[in-house]
Amino acid sequence: MNDDKNLQFDYRYGFSMPENYVFKARKGLDEEIVKEISFLKKEPIWMTKFRLQAYQAFKKRSLPLWGADLSSINFDDIYYYIKPLKDQKKSWQDLPKEIKETYDKIGVPEAEKKFLAGVSAQYESEVVYKNIQKELARQGVIFVDMDTGLRDYPEIVKKYFGTVVSLYDNKFASLNSAVWSGGSFVYVPSGVKVSLPLQAYFRINAQNFGQFERTLIIAEEGSYVHYLEGCLPAGQMILTSEGYKNIEAIKPGDFVYTSSGYLSKVKSTMTRNYFDYLYEVIPLSPENKFYLTKEHPVLAIKRKKVLVKRKKRFNWLEEVNTEKLIQTKPEYIEIENLEKGDFIIFPKIKDQIIEKKDIFSDELMELFGFYLAEGSAFYHQKLKQYIVSFSFSKKEKENYCRVIELIEKITEKKPNLFIDDKKNEAKISIYSKYLFDILIKNCGKYSSEKFISQEIIFQKKEKLEKLFWSYFKGDGNLSIKNKTSHLYRINTASKNLAFSIQLILNKIGIFASIGFRKGGKDKILNREIKRKNQYIIRFTMPKKWSEVRETGNYYIVPIKSLKKKKVEIPVFNIEVDGNNSYLVKGFAVHNCTAPIYTTDSLHSAVVEIIVKKGARVRYTTVQNWSKNVYNLVTKRAKVEEEATMEWIDCNLGSKITMKYPSCILTGRKAKGEVLSIAYASENQLQDAGAKMIHLASETSSRIVSKSIAGRGGRTSYRGLVHVSPNASKSSSYVSCDALILDEDSRSDTYPTMKIENKKTHIQHEATVEKIGEEKLFYLQSRGIKKSDAEGLLVNGFIEPVAKEIPLEYTIELNRLINLEMSGSVG
Amino acid sequence: MITLKNFTVKAGEKIILKNINYAFEKNKVYCLMGPNGSGKSTFAYAISGHPGYELDEKSKIYFEKQDITDLSSDKRAKKGIFLSFQTPLSLNGVNVFQLLRLALSGTKDPLKIKKEIEIFAKKLNIKKELIERSLNDGASGGEKKKLEMLQAAIINPKFLILDEVDTGVDVDALRSIGRFLDEFKKEKTIVLITHYSRILKYINPDKVLVIIDGKIQKEGTKELVKEIEDKGYGKTS
Fold first, then answer.
1. CA distance A368 to chain B (A)
2. Is the pLDDT of residue A665 over 90?
């Protein structure tokens, strides 16, 4: 299999993998290749003919003379078909890794895979997928990949395929018709309303992710379906100058901690799609578990390097030599080469001031600690007073006396002490705006929302000790095992707080683990109680955990469990200045070394939708292709009597997008709608719009287009409203608004109206605005940073469309836009 | 509270405020009057840090003894300076909650902001739909000014400049605003820029300043307002 002659991939990027293909078409396209594609897919004759006809049409057709310049696409330099294996495997999971890597590396599906979605659910996805499939099957809904659709439902496919988008439609539709592979086939029977959006995420078949995918949706009479393609982010917690942040929220210019324990600047951030094993690493502290792609290097020491010749103890692995372990220099090892029992590195965080922060007094730090455990703060409406209060058990005299003392020192006021004998409670309260403000700002208000501000974390070690030990007096407990090992334990409902305390302990010089206990109903002494979710922080003193070793610069922590799981998700990575590392949940990992694709690629899909009488279909896209993709997609729906078609189309990524979702309104009272958002940044052109063809009476259409151009990007609205002579009493509303963020960016509008019936109502509105200095000043005068103000205005601008998208995608959209925005302002 | 030293402000080439030296005392209410074009709004904008106005090299603004001359407007606002706009802009797709949430992120939790919006909207007689709609979108003059007051109430600044909060406002709205301000002024320094005495029915100024031709020409008590109303700016002694 390892025959180099058959390796037809471009090795510029240093890829190398065994050849596992049965068939791979030559580069470029001719009739033979089209025939072979059809043959290898075992397609019916009509499809082969269809493909060949389309190929002829593609050859004859020239590139569009309007819109973007596409002349740099080299059609001879593309692989149009690669058949992966002798036997079609059932699912992506069954495919050997080489295939998946290849798919990645030739850049074919590069960005389409971003549409995969919800990483939060990555481990449940299979279950969810199966459940949804079951429910759909019960309703008679077909939701499969297009190749399966053609194989299993040939009559339906034959009846509709190519009827909405003709193989002659345009050069790229012809190309797609000739070489299509993958895509979705959706059939919704009469009267069936599919409640959940069908997401591209749930399509796990390999064949779905092509450059030339083909989607066909048929909604029978009175049915409803919402089809969605989009992406959701992953969430690994990275230690930054502002505490833990999700990796996808990190921007170039942010500061993150590196393996040295010091802060370093983030140079760049990357996203790619990942179809392979994802490793779950659970260290000694279970809540510090994190996920990595298989080739991601982790700072580690292999257990087998530091073993002693002694037998296993305590149901754990062979013993190691502590001296050896401490002296061994950790090295970066790919996670796939690590195993349970190997050691990973938890660097000690060093004091480092990056900007001027307040310095808190010892007393205040100590009070913060008590407040985190026992305090609350509120504004008393009737008394019009800011009140801070602490409640202790009556027994804790030492603690509450100390709190009174501290408050007196800080505020120079005497607090109230109220001892409630019935409740066994000692309550301290003080009216102090100053205390109220500082406590709320740095520690939060109520117990479950308590946090520790960055200002606090930046304090010196000695100050942090004050805070920690007073906090421990409140929320902690101590169990004495023997002379050398005391177990310290703290419970908190706040995850944030747990990680902040772990960080503070790290700075103090203590390694603490975080565990989790799920809340719920429980019985204690026959009494039902409701328990909250609890995070449990643990450490031992004076002797440290026997399994965790420390050096001057880091803790050495064993991996307790290492699991892998196949996934299909977008993954994120950051590149850091200096020593090229960052901390995931506190553990040191290297910048990922995975390749980044720089070749341009072509994505040319066709989507055909048939909406029958009284049915409604909504098709939502959140497109965030990488910025080297030509995204040339033909999307069209045939809308019959009283039916409704809604396209919601958000275009953020790609190099060039040309996309004009269309509705052909063929039946009386048919309705079409296109809501679109386009965002073009540096080197991007978003040429997007809509087409509405009114062929019957009383049809109505609505186009709302919102485009934003910044950093020299360019957006164009290109739209057509055609009202045929038969379409009496029709109406159309077009509104296209453009927002231009700076002098270098550009926006154009090309609306075309072809009205052949006088009894129609047409409305067209277009606005172009610049993001106004005055609006920015207005927001800034409220205390909002300029970049945040711009983001707010842009998100406000797209709100009319954004509100139509499911919430999780709106959040993602706002996040993407804020990400783009943050680079555009100084 | 705020001290202006050699405060000279230019818009483009034109000098609008000329070498003003003045200290606004803590927890006092000032009434700033002056003919059209005398520089009142420039005064408000320049203190809030509008980037369109240029300060002379020697100009200094101190806020609670800190030099804030070089701070951007958002940083000034964070310190506790608030400007109520003469003509508040409407913001598409951004409602007052979204604005305040961002303005107070990290200092006040969103739920509390939501609650406070309800409370103050009631106090100021602001209709519910105005709160939910894009800020100032389709709002009348009076409603816009009331929304400015609502933001002030929740941001809770130390130093407020109210640029003609009483202009374009009907009697009922004026009453709501006036009463609100009288209650709100506690522990705050307020500069009320106005042309009329009618708002002074509700809130009593400690001092009245008259700005003419870019300079503070007169300083007095409430009586000065009456004098101006009777005689105009030209003839006051």
1. 16
2. yes
> A788 contacts in B (CB within 8 Å)?
102
**The token pair that represents A98 in the structure block:** 């080489």
Take residue A231 and report the two structure tokens written for it. 């992406």
Q: Which residues of B touch A783 (CB under 8 A)?
A: 74, 77-78, 103-104, 155
How far apart CA A306 and CA B193 sit, in angstroms, is 77
- Please name the amino acid found at residue A206: A
**In the A/B pair of chains, how many CB contacts fall below 8 A?**
85
The distance of A782 to chain B (nearest Cα, Å) reads 6
Quick one: DSSP state of residue A6? G
Query: What CATH number belongs to A362-550?
Result: 3.10.28.10
Domain extent for B180: 2-83+140-231
Across the interface, whether the CB atoms of B100 and A773 are under 8 A apart is answered no
User: Does the residue B187 lie in any domain?
Assistant: yes
CA distance B168 to B90: 16
Question: Is the CB of residue A715 less than 8 Å from the CB of residue A737?
Answer: no
How far CA A237 is from CA of A414, A587, A786, A820, B123, in Å, comes to: 42, 10, 27, 21, 43
Residue A783 has pLDDT above 90, yes or no: yes
Q: Which residue has the higher pLDDT, B66 or A6?
A: B66
Instruction: Select the residue of A775, A786, A799 nearest B74 (Cβ to Cβ).
Output: A786
Contact between B89 and A778 using a beta-carbon 8 Å cutoff: yes
Tokens of A386: 């800011």
Q: Is residue A316 predicted with pLDDT exceeding 80?
A: no
**Do the domain assignments include residue B208?**
yes
Interchain CB distance below 8 Å, B52 and A778: no
- Average per-residue pLDDT in chain A? 79
In this structure, what CATH number is given to the domain that contains residue B147? 3.40.50.300
The closest alpha carbon to A150, from A139, A160, A138, A137, belongs to A160
Q: Which residue of B has its CA nearest to A783?
A: B74
Chain B residues near any Cβ of chain A (below 8 Å): 48-52, 72-74, 76-78, 82-83, 85, 88-89, 91-94, 98-100, 102-104, 106-107, 109, 134, 151, 155
Closest CA to A777 of B36, B197, B72: B72
Give me the percent of chain A exceeding a pLDDT of 70.
Answer: 78
Contact: B93, A796; criterion CB under 8 Å: yes
Number of domains in chain B: 1
Q: Which ipTM did the prediction report?
A: 0.96
Q: Please tell me the predicted confidence (pLDDT) of residue A188.
A: 95
When pLDDT is averaged across residues A262-285 and rounded to a whole number, the result is: 77
Nearest residue in chain A measured CA to CA from B186 = A384
Domain map (residue ranges) of chain A: 237-348+552-584, 362-550, 774-826
Which of A444, A777, A782 is the closest to B151 by Cβ?
Answer: A782
Q: What would the CATH number be for the domain defined by A237-348+552-584?
A: 2.170.16.10
Q: How confident is the model at residue A681 (pLDDT cuts 50, 70, 90)?
A: confident
Q: Write down the pLDDT at residue A39.
A: 87
Q: Which of the four pLDDT bands, split at 50, 70 and 90, describes residue A99?
A: very low
What is the tens place of the pLDDT at every residue in A395-425? 888 999 999 999 998 888 899 999 988 888 8
Pairing of strands B60-63, B14-24: unpaired
CB distance A798–B93 less than 8 Å? yes
pLDDT at B82: 96
Residue B102 lies in a domain: no
Q: Is the pLDDT of residue A5 over 50?
A: no
pLDDT at B6: 93
Range with top average pLDDT, A538-552, A579-593, B131-145: B131-145
Contacts of B99 in chain A (CB under 8 A): 779, 782, 784, 792
| CB contact (8 A) between residue A796 and residue B50 | no
Question: How far is the alpha carbon of A306 from chain B, nearest alpha carbon, in Å?
Answer: 47
> CA-CA distances (angstroms) from residue B37 to A492, A692, B16, B88, B233?
60, 53, 9, 19, 13
State how far residue B64 is from chain A, nearest Cα, in angstroms: 16
Let me know if residue B31 belongs to a domain: yes
